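Input (structure):
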């Protein structure tokens, strides 16, 4: 299929990078990149097959261009990817801090990809490790087992393998990616569930807890309320921003309780505009299981 184009006028303030930036898994992500002209590029395995989407805004109108068997699906889904179904006004600030976060986050929308598997695998790879380690594995596996993205960027971008193909990746290739057996088994086991239909039951999968569920659902279905319980950084950021001191998971849940229904939105705003802790001591080590 050749190039297919769609234009769309959101009718609301939209900060594209703030809205879609969480889908990028590191600067070398072969499935997501930014163009020098300000465009966003995604390679996706859609229900209709592989596809590439690029999005660019002139300030009022969004132009989407797509290639491959999944082109029509990507263009049809584009408004939801950019937050058309989101309702930011449902968050009612209860204090001056959150009111200021809302003001500074004008244009941030909670979009959705409607591709649960492509959000779940990177989330599993990121369990209890530093981002650089997980991003390295994601790059290796997608470049090795994905296919060239349709359209004008096949040499630089790859479409992730479909769900069933992840179960067929040999154990030695997982090792070469830097992933240890626990996360490999979690991803392999997850291939048995239709996660697209049962995205509200991800925690029944062995090795998938609340943190992984939140990471996947916030991206795939735009859930405005999931909380990243178990995250290394987020409770500290929420505490420092809302009350001026770091808290643990229980403290974060208590602080976010008044915003039930919109807790993920608060977390997203805190992640972008909240108070950053001072750095003390060395950072977490990037492990490399390829040496074991």
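Output (sequence):
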């Amino acid at each position: 299929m050749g190039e297919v184009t769609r234009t769309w006028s959101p009718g609301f303030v939209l900060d594209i990078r703030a809205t879609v930036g969480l889908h990028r898994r590191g600067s070398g992500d072969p499935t997501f990149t930014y163009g020098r002209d300000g465009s966003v590029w995604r390679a996706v395995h859609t229900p209709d097959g592989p596809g590439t989407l690029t999005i660019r805004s002139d300030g009022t109108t969004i132009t989407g261009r797509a290639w491959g068997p999944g082109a029509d699906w990507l263009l049809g889904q584009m408004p939801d990817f950019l937050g058309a179904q989101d309702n930011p006004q449902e968050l009612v600030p209860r204090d001056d801090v959150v009111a200021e976060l809302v003001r500074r986050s004008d244009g941030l929308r909670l979009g959705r990809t409607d591709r649960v598997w492509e959000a779940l695998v990177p989330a599993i790879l990121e369990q209890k490790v530093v981002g650089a380690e997980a991003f390295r594995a994601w790059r290796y596996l997608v470049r090795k087992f994905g296919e060239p993205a349709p359209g004008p960027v096949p040499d630089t971008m790859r479409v992730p393998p479909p769900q069933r193909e992840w179960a067929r990746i040999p154990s030695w290739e997982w090792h070469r990616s830097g992933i240890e057996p626990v996360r490999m088994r979690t991803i392999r086991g997850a291939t048995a569930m239709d996660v697209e239909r049962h995205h509200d039951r991800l925690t029944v999968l062995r090795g998938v807890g609340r943190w992984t569920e939140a990471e996947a659902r916030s991206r795939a279905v735009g859930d405005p309320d999931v909380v990243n319980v178990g995250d290394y950084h987020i409770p500290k950021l929420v505490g420092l921003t809302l009350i001026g001191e770091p808290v643990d998971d229980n403290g974060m849940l208590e602080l976010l309780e008044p915003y039930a229904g919109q807790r993920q939105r608060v977390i997203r705003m805190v992640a972008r505009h909240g108070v950053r802790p001072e750095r003390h001591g060395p950072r977490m080590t990037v492990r490399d299981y390829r040496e074991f």
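Notes: The radius of gyration is 19 Å. The domain at 4-223 is CATH 1.10.340.30 (Endonuclease III; domain 1).
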